[in-house]
Amino acid sequence: MTLVTEIAILVLAGFVGFAVISKIPNTLHTPLMSGTNAIHGIVVLGGLLLMHLATGWLEHLLLFVAITFGMINIIGGFFVTDRMLEMFKRKPDPEPTAERAEQEDKQQ
Amino acid sequence: MSAGTIFLQQQNFIDVCYIVAFSLFILGMSGLTGPRTAVRGNLIAATGMAIAIVATLLTPHVWDGSSTPILIILALLLGTAIGLPAARRVKMTAMPQMVALFNGVGGGAVAIIAWVEYRHHFGGDYTLKVEIPSLFAAIVGSISFWGSNIAFGKLQAILPSRPIKLPGQAIINGALFVIAVASAIILASGTHSQALFILGILVTAALLGNMVVLPIGGADMPVVISLLNAFTGLSAAATGIALNNTALIVGGMIVGASGTILTNLMAKAMNRSVPAIVAGGFGGEVAAPAGGEDSDRGPVKSTTPDDVAIQLSYARQVVIAPGYGMAVAQAQYAVRDLEKALEDKGVRVLFAIHPVAGRMPGHMNVLLAESQVPYEALKEMDEVNPEFQRTDVTLVIGANDVTNPAAKNEPGSPIYGMPILDVDKSQSVIVLKRSMASGFAGIDNPLFYEPQTSMLFGDAKSSVSEITAAIAAL
To answer: Which chain A positions have a beta carbon within 8 Å of B110's beta carbon?
Structure first.
């Protein structure tokens, strides 16, 4: 790919990103941040692609750390986002039925 | 078919996988526009990530070398072993620290990858196309790594959250920035001993990361976290250009866009420009004069949980304005119980969420969602401000600067012009606070001295529980 093609992709991705993310409500901004934490874990690909080129223990060690970091981001980010979003999801029960309200009372 | 053709086809297949992966990222993010579709959106993005990783592992030569497979597998497992329990166990009140740490970890990975990439392309087939993005990624990734670690330290209270400033801070930061960029230009132009220069760049950027975040006070944290988020994303996108990897370019750019949007929103909600915040000194400079004004404000009224309970039970509408104090006291469950008790008495309860309440965008919403406050009861600032006139009692729980009427009435105040929650428009205001100490910005709050305001001193969680108990006893 030429540099120009890649810059075109970069710019278009920027516009798409702005369009999509502007629509996300304030309420969901924390999950948005942890979700984007997970997505920038994509740098793990860089570590994976470079590992076989590494020479010497230092580069091997550093790339090992980079892959570990990336993976922490991906796994940690997606899981914690899921945990948070589940909490938001169970909220908008359209109308809690009497039965349900009773159950909740009993729990207290 | 020659080996070359097979290689080509395989490469095409992998490139298509990357396109699928980044499409899923975008699709997943658009799911986040509502709470109902958000969980699925997150799963879709995670699927995209899985596809991108598998495709990369299928790339020719990735497994070449004797130690490569074991290192790759161990690193992937280790990352999972660290990330998973961290994500499972972290408390919702600690989310700002977690996000700061994740930003830093990502920035660190970018800086390392940029450095290794640079070393391998130097001298041989290197081109400016690899050089410029790698150097950019090395500088920005390193700033993000160190800056995020400092932010984490401040949020976790390992470091003091007040601004830490050196004399001539702005000049030092400027000089560091110039050194980093100049080294990068010298490197890219190509004749000097690369190894030392790239290390020099990483070290300068590391210092810069520390110096930029240390002078920033706790109240400015939402802006800083968002900004570091944007930095990490943009540096990842730059790495993508150096590595010819579309998934990295698009993924990084989405994060960059998200971080940029959030940074602007947060800065707007504080009526401050991003450069002014990065230049630092919200709290430090103004704390002293504001503290001196205390004496001419007159006395404050204090109240008891029983009195508050009576006031609340006979109200028609109550607005609760939470702030960082609610997170510190872990009071979100107690607040939910109070809300339920009031709803049972037929009182309408709303929550007024200021965009910069807490330490990161959306911090209060997550805590209240955790304690199962209904999504519809959470109102954004513009939505709730007209409600205050119709509100009998406003309960301010651990929020300070975002309710400070000085932002409207006192042109001399450092927060003048910042949009606030108009809590002072309600019939009466009850402020739950640990003591009379000023907020993190160190600015005195005239709200506390208003005739309709009374203060309930003590730990937010126990105060709220006592109020709830008193309501039940009525």
So the answer is: 43, 46
